[in-house]
Design a protein that fits this description.
By secondary structure, the protein is an all-beta fold. It has no helices and 7 strands. The strands form 3 sheets. It has a 3-stranded antiparallel beta sheet, with no helix packed on it. A two-stranded antiparallel ribbon has the order 1-2. A two-stranded antiparallel sheet has the order 5-6. Strand 3 and strand 4 form a beta hairpin. The protein is rod-shaped and about 75 Å long.
Length: about 100
Amino acid sequence: MERINGADSIVVNDDPDIQVGSGYWQIDVLQKFLLRQSDQVSHILNVQYSTSSDVPRYYGSHRPPTACRVWQWYYGPRDRLLGSYAPNWQKGGAL
């Protein structure tokens, strides 16, 4: 479905397994840090960031084109930040 001259119009997709023209983008960054305080103690810090644009989602019924209805809505945009900390203690030896 495309907007042509201000009206929604049904357009044939040559490959139905590909969602054409979504314009979707996403960036993911993750990093883990390890600090060894001693042979018995270490600290792990995990930091993750993810962001995306609007993600179009389309659904259509499987009726003939003259009776076809198409629904469209968006997921996003999305921003997510996660951080976690994990201390590790080991008795009497190396980690």
